[in-house]
Amino acid sequence: MAQVTVTAAQIAVMYPDKAEIYDRIAAEALTAGDLCYLDTNGKASKANAGAAGTVIDVGLVLTTRGAGSAVSVLKRGFVAGVAVSGLAFGAKVYASDTAGQIADANGTVNLKVGTVEAVAQANGPQKALYFDVMWA
Prior knowledge:
Elements: E1 12-14, E2 20-25, E3 35-38, E4 44-46, E5 59-61, E6 70-80, E7 92-95, E8 102-103, E9 112-121, E10 124-132
Antiparallel strand pairs: 1-6, 2-6, 3-4, 3-5, 5-6, 6-10, 7-8, 7-9, 9-10
């Protein structure tokens, strides 16, 4: 399993009018591009596929924030800043066994968090991550 590179400064929602974004309170310091889950206190904590209890209602952090601050979390939509150019169109990405990270293969707990999709550009299709996680 390899980690998928995320560049926090480039994390941005593509087509925001079609995305699902929610605000949560950060339980710990979170960086844009981290995977987070809804912890038992109702706050956003780093998701970790190595522990089943930390992959509940997973989202992608859109804004870097400290503990106790409001943080925007993407549930569904296209996102820039995730390096998927080396993956095939249609490839799946997963929650990693490393807290807050995305990987190209499933972790101990299998949770798919997105798919590499095509986005139309003037010079042809470009690869982008479509983030989409089912919430309970």
